[in-house]
Write a structure and sequence with these properties.
By secondary structure, this protein is mostly helical. It has five helices and no strands.
């Protein structure tokens, strides 16, 4: 009659987790090697299925009440910050001397 076949019964969470793990690894590889979105990559280098703080996502995607964003959509005539720089979210967070008390550290360059 031959050798009996032994079926291994795996827990459902384990089985469901295998494709998820593989997908996340592939996504992370694409994100690491990508040539777009590098400003955001420097701030959020890891991919994941859980949402991050939505305010941070909006902020670092350059959306919001910043002069550069408002000018891009013709809601303002100028993209300038009061300090003279281009008024992007990242400018206010990392460069503008007017917001130094809320300053974030500039990410280290890749390389």
């Amino acid at each position: 009659m031959g050798n009996p076949i032994h079926l291994l019964k795996l827990p459902k969470p384990h089985v469901k987790g295998l494709p998820r793990k593989s997908m996340l690894e592939e996504w992370q590889t694409f994100w690491n090697k990508g040539d777009t979105g590098r400003k955001i990559f420097n701030i959020m280098p890891s991919v994941g299925l859980r949402p991050t703080n939505w305010i941070r996502e909006i902020f670092f995607s350059e959306h919001g009440p910043f002069p550069a964003y408002l000018k891009r959509f013709h809601l303002s005539d100028s993209d300038q910050c009061s300090c003279g720089g281009i008024g992007t979210a990242l400018h206010y967070a990392m460069e503008c001397f007017l917001t130094v008390s809320w300053r974030m550290k500039k990410p280290a360059p890749n390389g």
